Amino acid sequence: MWHQxxxxxxxxxxxxxxxxISLAENETAGLIEALAKTSIPQKPVIGITGPPGAxxxxxxxxxxxxxxxxxxxxxxxxxxxxxxxxQGAVLxxxxxxxxxxxxxxxxxxxLATRGALGGLHPRILEITDLVKCFTADWILIExxxxxxxxxxxxxxxxxxxxxxxxxxxxxxxxxxxxLLEIADLFVVNKSxxxxxxxxxxxLERMMQEDRSHGSITPIINAIATEKKGIExxxxxxxxLLRAPSQLHRNRMLLLEKAKHxxxxxxxxxxxxxxxxxxxxxxxxxxxxxxxxxxxxxxD
Length: 299
Ligand SMILES: Nc1nc2c(ncn2[C@@H]2O[C@H](COP(=O)(O)OP(=O)(O)OP(=O)(O)O)[C@@H](O)[C@H]2O)c(=O)[nH]1
Ligand SMILES: [Mg+2]
Prior knowledge:
The chain is an alpha/beta fold. It is built from 14 helices and seven strands.
């Protein structure tokens, strides 16, 4: 069944893609086996992440416009639009990207988070590969950077744009390590705000202090609502994509993907009923200890 869906997706059938993503979301069996037999084309996957409300959707909307103008087709995956922190964001995104929902060269799909412990959707890797099979030239993945998810999106994307806003001063101090590591490009959005320059210097200083990973990440000022800085972002992304692949980084990202898949496979092998029985039994002991139980169960 999956082979048929994938064939239709490869022919550019958006309805097949929508249906297949839903099946993947619902954990319909056989997807991994089908993907293992599919030649998945290489195409740019750009992660767009950053704090809530930084303007990621507005920026994505503007990027779609610029890509379309350059004759490209685009698929967009919005992850986590229904997170409890952002009620109503799906509607907001629909309004922000409304111009594109009906455009023949644009496909937009929102995914709700299902990961009980946060992070991205557990099937995001497979869903991205399904979208890669589709005829779009570029794939954009928007995700709110609230901890783990931005690191995960970096493992998923070929290049990651971190969107920050001038008022994020203190916030980036705490997100610093993760953000510096994953960003291929920083966008200081809302540069119409008065403290944009000060914030940019702050970011530059932070990067100079942290030269551990070699090169300095480029910073671009943008005003997404006015479509300012968008062409510059695309030019940089094209350059980044053309640059010889950073083998070390790619290997690290592949390793992350592999770990993710192994975790999933391992979880699938767990027998929920058996586990519950064992846990119920263990809990009857006054000395019950969850860590000890997990260790026993895993061995
Ligand atoms: N002043 C100003 N406002 C902007 C700019 N870009 C976006 N906004 C506004 O910021 C608000 C949030 O924009 P979104 O694009 O929804 O931000 P987001 O990062 O996608 O938000 P979440 O997905 O909810 O995390 C909206 O009201 C936008 O109109 C900008 O460059 N300047
Ligand atoms: Mg958004």
